[in-house]
Write a structure and sequence with these properties.
Shape: globular
Bound molecules: 2-amino-3-ketobutyric acid
Helix content: 40-55%
CATH topology of the largest domain: Rossmann fold
Strand order of the largest sheet: 3-2-1-4-5-6-10
CATH superfamily of the largest domain: NAD(P)-binding Rossmann-like Domain
Distance between the termini: 46 Å
CATH architecture of the largest domain: 3-Layer(aba) Sandwich
């Protein structure tokens, strides 16, 4: 039975991953952590306050709970990273180095979420290959390229079992994302149900790789459970599900909510989105450890609207973000 630590567990990915991990390994074997004081810890669930830039606190938690696996989700996302580049570097790079050092010392298995943000203006936009130009134009992207190289280094040099995925934009209903460029693809659902109108911060034709959260969770668990010999890439795997433009997402939502309208007011996030690929080639992940996605755009929209009608729409970004407070003006 594994003893698991999830850093940045209050963020969008962590909120769903913790539920899945607890279902698989038992509530008391999954330790949540984040910078805030405990919000969620109740019953047999365990929460530790952890700033990943502080190595001693991380080591103490690993030792105290006899952790053998870390899902290292704490990080500053792309849009927030442009507002706070120093903090983005500190959290994303020093946090990861501390986790990799702890992995070396305590023989931990590690999951590191990389991103489509490793790519940049000179990367092929269509069918982006696994190995290609990586010239990110954001601090977030720079930290993800560096992070991938650190993972590869620790795997080759010290035998650390670190596994990583280049995640696309993730769509989910349990928690709102905070500080990313793909956040519009989640905000739009809440706005569609609540206000019936949304002002989108990227242009209608902006097409980005996206994935529904259940697929993302299956991908993360899939790569972590794969036989080590199947993992031939120790930087990070390209991972894909669907690609759609903002206008295509609006049109699909309108098939369920015909009165919904969307306006467009591109801001600084447009340039970030424009620097990323539109469609990713993830053949290597499919061949090496059997990755397959399940949700297309129609299935995502149907499930999201159903789920939000049950769980309730959010006014703004309430949850604890991966590492810090969200960018302001998430909803207009
Ligand atoms: C972001 O928009 O910053 C993230 C990502 C694609 O890594 N969702």
């Amino acid at each position: 039975m594994h003893k698991i630590l999830v850093t940045g567990s209050g963020g969008q990915l962590g909120s769903d991953l913790v539920v899945a991990l607890r279902r698989l390994y038992g509530v008391s074997n999954v330790i949540e952590s984040g910078r805030r004081v405990p919000l969620k810890g109740s019953g047999s669930s365990i929460y530790e306050t952890l700033d990943v830039t502080q190595r001693p606190s991380l080591d103490a938690i690993v030792e105290r709970h006899q952790i053998d696996t870390v899902y290292h989700l704490a990080g500053v996302l792309s849009a927030k990273g442009e507002q706070q580049p120093d903090r983005c570097w500190d959290v994303n790079i020093n946090g990861l180095r501390h986790v990799l050092e702890a992995a070396k010392t305590f023989k931990l298995q590690v999951f590191f979420p990389s991103s489509i943000a490793v790519f940049g203006p000179h990367t092929p936009k269509l069918d982006t290959p696994q190995i290609t130009i990586e010239d990110p134009s954001t601090m977030y992207g720079i930290t993800k390229v560096t992070g991938e190289l650190l993972c590869h280094y620790y795997a080759q040099r010290f035998g650390v079992d670190v596994r990583s995925l280049r995640l696309p934009g993730i769509i989910s209903y349990r928690a709102l994302p905070g500080g990313g460029t793909t956040d519009f693809a989640v905000e739009i659902f809440h706005a569609a149900l609540k206000a019936k109108t949304y002002t989108c911060f990227v242009r209608p034709e902006t097409r980005l790789p996206m994935m529904y959260m259940p697929d993302a969770i299956r991908a993360i668990l899939g790569i972590m459970q794969a036989d080590p010999s199947a993992i031939t890439i120790r930087t990070s795997y390209n991972l894909a599900a669907v690609s759609f433009s903002a206008a295509e997402l609006v049109a699909e939502i309108q098939t369920h909510l015909p009165q919904f309208t969307c306006h467009y007011a591109p801001d600084f996030r447009q340039a970030i989105a424009d620097s990323w690929p539109s469609v990713i080639d993830d053949a290597k992940a499919r061949a090496d450890w059997g990755w397959q996605h399940q949700y297309d755009l129609a299935a995502i929209v149907e499930d999201m609207l159903e789920a939000l009608k049950t769980t309730g729409v959010r006014e703004a970004c309430h949850h604890e973000e991966n590492s810090d407070s969200p960018v302001s003006g998430m909803f207009r």
